[in-house]
Specification:
This protein has two domains: 2-34, no CATH class; 44-227, Up-down Bundle (Butyryl-CoA Dehydrogenase, subunit A, domain 3), CATH 1.20.140. The chain is 54% helix and 16% strand. It has four helices and nine strands. The strands form three sheets. The chain has a five-stranded antiparallel sheet with strand order 8-7-6-5-9. Strands 1-2 form a two-stranded antiparallel ribbon. The protein has a two-stranded antiparallel ribbon with strand order 3-4. Helix 1 (44-69) runs antiparallel to helix 2 (111-145), helix 1 runs antiparallel to helix 4 and helix 3 (154-192) packs antiparallel against helix 4 (205-227). The longest helix is centred in the last third of the chain and has 39 residues, at 154-192.
C-alpha cells in the first residue's frame, strides 16, 4: 500500500502499490489522477525528424535498386546510346540488337580502357556490398531505437550505430570514383577508334540519376544523425 494526500481536501488516502489511473477521494469525493505519466504531444521537431527518416528510408531503397540495375546498364554513352559502357563491358546496340565485348577482350586493343573497365566493375560491386551493409546496419539501428527485441551481440549493435555513416559514404564514393574512371576510359577508347570526331562519350541519364540519388542518401543520413 502507498499513502498519499488528496490534492483537493489534503486528507490521507491509501492506494495499492502500482495503482494508476483516475480515483475518487473517499473523503471529499474529488477526482484525481495517480501514477499516470503525462502524455506529451509530439513537437514539431519530432514530426520533422520522422519525416526525414521516412524520406530517407525510401531513398535508401531506391539507391539499392538502382545499384543492382546498374550492373547491366550503360553508365557512359555515345552516338545516342548506340555505344555504351556497362560494368561488364562495352555494349553496341543497333536496331534492337546488342552485343557486349567484355573488358578482358579489350586488353590487346586498348589496355587502359580495359583496366579502367575492370576497376569500374569492381567499384560498382563494392558499392553494392557497401549499400547492402548500410541497409543492414540501418535496419538494426532503427529496430533498436524503436525498442524492438532483436537477438544481436553488443558488438553488432555498436557497428550498426557507428558504421551507418561510413557505409553510406562508401557507396557514394565507390560509384563516383568508378564513374570518373570509366568516363576517362571511354574517352580514350573513343579517341582510339575515331569516335570522338562524331560523338564524345558522356554520362547516361541513369548514371546521373544514380549519382544524385546516392548523394541525396548521404545528405539525408547526415540530417538524421544531426537530429539524433
Amino acid at each position: 500500500m502507498v499513502d498519499i494526500f488528496c490534492p483537493h481536501c489534503e486528507e490521507e488516502i491509501s492506494l495499492d502499490d502500482g495503482a494508476s489511473g483516475e480515483f475518487e477521494c473517499p473523503h471529499c469525493e474529488g477526482e484525481f489522477e495517480w501514477g499516470m505519466e503525462e502524455k506529451k504531444r509530439p513537437g514539431s521537431g519530432t514530426i520533422q525528424v520522422n519525416n526525414i527518416t521516412t524520406i530517407s528510408h525510401v531513398v535508401h531503397g531506391v539507391c539499392a535498386v538502382l545499384l543492382i540495375i546498374g550492373l547491366f546498364s550503360n553508365w557512359v554513352v555515345a552516338l545516342d546510346g548506340f555505344f555504351g559502357l556497362t560494368p561488364f563491358g562495352i555494349k553496341i546496340s543497333f536496331l534492337g540488337f546488342s552485343e557486349t565485348a567484355t573488358y578482358f577482350e579489350l586488353f590487346q586493343e586498348s589496355f587502359i580502357t580495359a583496366l579502367a573497365g575492370l576497376l569500374f566493375m569492381l567499384l560498382i560491386i563494392g558499392a553494392i556490398l557497401m549499400q547492402i551493409s548500410h541497409l543492414a546496419f540501418r535496419f538494426i539501428f532503427h529496430k533498436l531505437e524503436n525498442g524492438s527485441d532483436i537477438n544481436i551481440s553488443q558488438r553488432m549493435a555498436y557497428n550498426a550505430y557507428v558504421y551507418r555513416w561510413h557505409t553510406s559514404l562508401g557507396a557514394f564514393v565507390f560509384v563516383s570514383v568508378g564513374y570518373v574512371i570509366i568516363q576517362i576510359g571511354a574517352i580514350i577508347f573513343a579517341s582510339n577508334i575515331g569516335l570522338t570526331d562524331v560523338s564524345v562519350p558522356k554520362p547516361s541519364v541513369f548514371a546521373i540519376f544514380t549519382l544524385l540519388a546516392l548523394c541525396g542518401q548521404f545528405l539525408l543520413m547526415n540530417m538524421e544523425r544531426r537530429a539524433e
